[in-house]
Structures are given as structure tokens and as C-alpha cells.
Amino acid sequence: MTETRRAGFAVNFVSGSWGIGVAVIGADGKPAGALSVAAIESRMGEPRRREVACFLQAAAAELSVRLRELHSVSRKTDVTRRRA
What's the rounded mean pLDDT across residues 39-60? Predict the structure, then answer.
């Protein structure tokens, strides 16, 4: 777990295939979901694993921003409805 947090992604090897996953962080700062990619071993060498991890981290960061934006809009809408 410590290595996963440090790296910002998890890597898993099971029976000839690699899996890479990253957390999507919600507006509350806690994991809200995850993005992952799996592929057979021959298509996921070390350079490719690093590349995929970077793509996943970028996508997860974008989703995290959008979740915060949605949370902000939702809270503003709730406040407006309460005032009406």
C-alpha cells in the first residue's frame, strides 16, 4: 500500500497479464472510484506500464476535478432551492 501511494498507481501481475489502476478522488478527498487497464504480458512491458500509468493518472486527475466541480454546482443549487 505504501508503494502504491508513493507511485500513485497500483500494478498487479496475475497469470500472464498485467493490471494497472489509479484512484479517482471525490470532492470529499476520498476515493470515489478507479480507472484500470489490463493486458496480456507481451503487450505490457515495463515502458508500456509506465506510459499507461501516466495516461490513467491524467484521466483520473481530470475526473477528480470534474467531480469537485459537480459537487460545487450541486451545493450551489441546493442553497438556491432552500432560499426559494
Answer: 96
